Amino acid sequence: xxxxxxxxxxxxxxxxxxxxxxSKTGACDHLIKMYMSDPDQLLHAFSVMFEINIPSDYxxxxxxxKDDDNPSHQSSSSSLVEIPNFTDADLLDMNRPIPxxxxxxxxxxxxxxxxxxxxxRIGPPHKWPQCLRTAVNMTLSSRFPMVIFxxxxxxxxxxxxxxPSLGPRxxxxxxTVLKSVWGDLWEFIKPMFEGVAKSGEPTFSxxxxxxxxxxxxxxxxxxxxxxxxxxxxxxxxxxFNAPLIESTEAVxxxxxxxxxxxxxxxxxxxxxxxxxxxxxxTEVMSTLPxxxxxxxxxxxxxxxxxxxxxxxxxxIMGGHNAVPDEIDMMEGGEPCKWPIQQVFExxxxxxxxDLGMCFPPxxxxxxxxxxxxxxxxxxxxxxxxxxxLTGVVLMGVN
Length: 398
Description:
This protein has helices at residues 2-12, 27-37, 39-49, 106-114, 130-140, 178-181, 186-199, 248-266, 274-285, 340-346, 355-358, and strands spanning 146-150, 155-158, 205-213, 218-225, 228-231, 237-246, 295-301, 306-312, 326-328, 350-352, 373-380, 389-397. By secondary structure, the chain is an alpha+beta fold. Strand 7 (295-301) and strand 8 form a beta hairpin.
């Protein structure tokens, strides 16, 4: 923007010797000086450059600290932005007392009221520092996911917006010590709290990957959050606040969309050989082991009624029990543990939730655990009027 303004001003004031020595880095200083000496001329220049319709009789006001002896530097009583005068009719009505349970998060408010704080080391809320009571009020009154940790024990208090992130830990996690709630994350987040307690400086974690078990299986989660200190009037820290939001869906969607864009770009119309097309497709899928631990593309040979392996990702070898070189599709043939016949009949993607029971340990891709879930994806014919299947993709999924 500075460069554009600089060139524009040079053009408008090309006959002014002052502009011939301007540099881009010093352009703003010169613009300020021009505004102070000749604001109306500068205003006209900007109106032409940026095509702004400014009334011809409009005058720019000057600051009050200009040279009083120079009439051109006399200030105007008006200001650049006029603040409207508010009347009583514009004010919000906040005089009526509203009970705390009205219009707030009903579940966590009830949990807070019914929790036995007497049995904790921080005691009942009426004995807490005002800063803690205020923090609880702000947390439970917000729909944005928020958590606060009370006292050196870090008692866990959260609102309804955060509850889904806990999975089955909710509502039993409310009011308990943080380490007992997120024991699998404690060694990772403990230094963050220690840093805030020692320096007072808040933390910030953007799309931080965390591995948690909250729905009966290990999950790859991404969260953005900040730990900040809750201080009293004497700057003594009594707890920590943590507004946060889970970004797992956004991070995974971006990662997968990037792979799909690459897949579309690499398998364009410039590839005419079917074998090359399959190879490129599995090569691209190999770049996303976090979501596709392995994949294999089969094409259907109608004359022999078999599916022939044409390509596979690098982390699984052809001939593996899960990806044989050929799959017999004839009646009475060797049964296949993948539900391929179901896919041929329905032309729909079929999920395989028990790969671990069907085959020896399979590649886990980017993760140390073997893949336990898979998909059989139909490859549909693209010729007009042809509804047949030309093959399938067998893949493990995260």
